[in-house]
Design goal:
Pfam family, one: DUF7695
Distance between the termini: 19 Å
Number of domains: 1
Largest sheet: 3 strands, antiparallel
Organism: candidate division WWE3 bacterium RIFCSPHIGHO2_01_FULL_42_13
Number of strands: 6
Domain DUF7695: 16-57
Radius of gyration: 12 Å
Number of helices: 1
Protein name: DUF7695 domain-containing protein
């Protein structure tokens, strides 16, 4: 897959907490960001994404 397409696809990803419906962009510039209720945490940069919380409490959204 060409690099431009891979980067565009990755840039459109958000994670949504199913409890409070808060959405967090995948690239947090290496800062842990928690949702309002604290069930989901996202920490990421261009090289990795770390997700905190239960898998059943989050969903990936492509915008």
């Amino acid at each position: 897959m060409p690099k431009e397409i891979a980067n565009k696809t990755k840039k459109e990803i958000h994670y949504r907490c199913k409890k409070c419906r808060d959405e967090i962009y995948w690239n947090t510039h290496k800062k842990m960001i928690m949702c309002k209720c604290g069930a989901l945490g996202v920490d990421g940069c261009e090289f990795y994404v770390r997700l905190i919380g239960d898998e059943k409490d989050r969903e990936m959204i492509k915008k």
